[in-house]
């Protein structure tokens, strides 16, 4: 193992900041986590924590957008509800 440079140490601090923000706010959609990860990876491209956090955040954003785009399928009405509706008329 090799020692880390000052820039790599700062990059680790930035990725720790992003991870702490994730744990406290659970807000993946305002762009802060992605900006922190991009900054950390620009100075330390082998920062595994930043790579994983970046991928997790992109996945969550994708899944949220996908859920919005898909129309929700209507569940079939259970048989007992049909029975109740027929009794009310």
What does this structure look like?
By secondary structure, the chain is mainly α. It has one domain (6-69). The chain is built from four helices and no strands. It is rod-shaped.
List keywords for this structure.
mainly alpha, 4 helices, single chain, 89 residues
Number of domains: 1
What does the overall shape look like? rod-shaped
Range of strand content: under 5%
Number of strands: 0
**Low-pLDDT regions:** none
SS-based class? mainly alpha
Give a short account of the largest sheet. Answer: none
The helix content, as a percent range, equals over 70%
Q: How widely separated are the two ends? A: 78 Å
Q: Topology of this structure?
A:
Elements: H1 6-25, H2 32-43, H3 48-69, H4 79-88
Helix pairs in contact: 1-2, 2-3
What is the gist of this entry?
The protein has 89 residues and is mostly helical. It has helices at 6-25, 32-43, 48-69, 79-88.
């Amino acid at each position: 193992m090799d020692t880390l440079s000052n820039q790599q140490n700062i990059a680790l601090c930035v990725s720790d900041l992003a991870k702490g923000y994730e744990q406290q706010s659970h807000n993946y959609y305002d762009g802060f986590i992605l900006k922190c990860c991009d900054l950390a990876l620009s100075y330390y491209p082998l920062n595994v924590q930043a790579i994983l956090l970046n991928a997790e955040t992109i996945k969550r954003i994708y899944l949220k957008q996908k859920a919005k785009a898909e129309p929700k399928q209507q569940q079939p009405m259970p048989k007992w509800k049909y029975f109740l509706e027929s009794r009310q008329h």
